[in-house]
């Protein structure tokens, strides 16, 4: 099939055509709207979500600081820890807050760590223990995944709404064909079956 004929066949709902119904034009506009929302809205949602996530990770990297803390109690060795633990146990540590005041809190450390050992912990700008911020590579991957999830959500909503609208149009068409058939069928003579 030559390329020009294919284009004419694909765009038949947009051209003046004696077989074109009002529902066909509505369906063409629905398809156009769905694809527009998908491309424009999906791109916007994906980029904004990725940027917002990336900004949140950058804020975490700016607010969190690694500090050295001292373990206050011995942590049992791996041999005495019940099976199924990750090799890290919760214990009490002491560190200095950004303002220089001493702080005490609980964090995970490796099994077998003795009291007085130095461990690295992460604190926020208020001196509270927190998790380590993601590395730049991890932050980039997670931002990309969040953006892709936003695009997928917009696509699902757009295509779902388009499918619902097209099914309603199809139901309207079938009902119209049924009404027309009731008018035309008696003219054809006797009924079969």
From TrEMBL:
Keyword annotations: Membrane, Transmembrane, Transmembrane helix
InterPro entries given in the database record: MT1774/Rv1733c-like
Transmembrane keyword on record: yes
TM helices/strands, residue ranges: 25-47, 144-165
Domain of life: Bacteria
Name of the protein: Integral membrane protein
Organism: Streptomyces triticiradicis
